[in-house]
Amino acid sequence: MKDSNFLKAQNGRLMWHPMTSPQDSIDNPPKIIIESNGVCITDIDGHAVVDAVGGLWNVNLGYSCQPVKEAIAKQLDRLPYYSTFRGTTNDAAIELSYELNQFFKDDGMASTFFTSGGSDSIETSLRLARQYHKLRGEHGRTKFLSLKKGYHGTHIGGASINGNANFRNAYEPLLPGCFHIPAPYTYRNPFNETDPERLAQLCVAALEDEIAFQGANTIAAMIMEPILGAGGVIPPHKSFAPLVSDLCQRHGILLITDEVITAYGRTGAWSGARLWGIQPDMMCTAKAITNGFFPFGAVMLGQRMVETFEDNPDAKIGHGYTYSGHPVGAAAALACLAETKRLNVIVNAAARGTQLYAGCLALKEKYDVIGDVRGGHGLMTAIEMVSDRDTKKPIDAASAAKVQEAAYQAGAMVRVSGPNLILSPPLVLTDTDAQLILSAIDAGFASL
Question: What is the pTM assigned to this prediction?
């Protein structure tokens, strides 16, 4: 590795970073992370902090998960790559398809299509949704519905169904036929409704109205995160997902749950669908499937999807990725899945999530800059920062950045996205780790 002076001098100069401007990376060089251990990361200056971001929602088992590292090393020695395109496959991919089938059986899933990551999984689900309806002779079903504030990756399809203008405006025009309904976001919604259950009903009524307006026979699928993640950790009322599911079934619309964040235990349940008691037609997964140690993803397919494709001789899937079912990724996922189940991470995710949520609510009593605290379902928590509680005016970017930096200096890497401070730490977080995160956030707000 080059010495630290060289790395600092080059930082932000020759590499464009996601979700920021090239000039910002030059003016405000990103932190250079060089080591990790357990749930902690260390920067180039030797400053170690608890990673309350969990990489990017994906390092569920922490950075020292030896079984996954060993599985990757062994697979690299035996078969570092081979394609799963027509006519060939590999043993790790076959075994993983079986294990995933068992893992998601309670969600109604029956088969798998492998991808290279979350955005790929979303794109795959959109394509397969349109093809499903064509195979059934319903060629007019091409439109997609999704939630405002929802995030579904960065491909053209994902950007089109994203419910945040920040991920859309620079790239428009996007995919036609994508429409958005209000999210069940109690703190801010067009209905000025603060009761979560009533808000869920109003959002579902808006969905039903949009279906009627577009024509049910023109809509391929509704896609949503079971808990909105990047949009600011927005958990709906427990009635929302079942109501959406019933509505989609009634109108022949496929329901896709974007489980890129919520699958594999983060919500305190094994999937977001299972948390709310629904069985979607497809589930998009990635991130924690390999604990962030290898780029990999999987779209899980429900029974009616499988039957339609397998019973139709014309159902050739003209879609796939060079790294679909990559043997190293599959080996990593197998080890990760085994360790996830062995540790039964949903128990700790629920306990530590409750601890962080309660701690953040206590901080709200202390700091007026905290407008809203959202969480209560596993290790997904957000603090929405405001400059005025009465008007709910969002905090300015400079103040939000100051909170983030002060928290980092006090011992925790947190993520600030717009006015939201988002926490998504590893699911193996300890009580002491959680308390350190809360203390660091406290120091962050005290810096204002």
Answer: 0.97
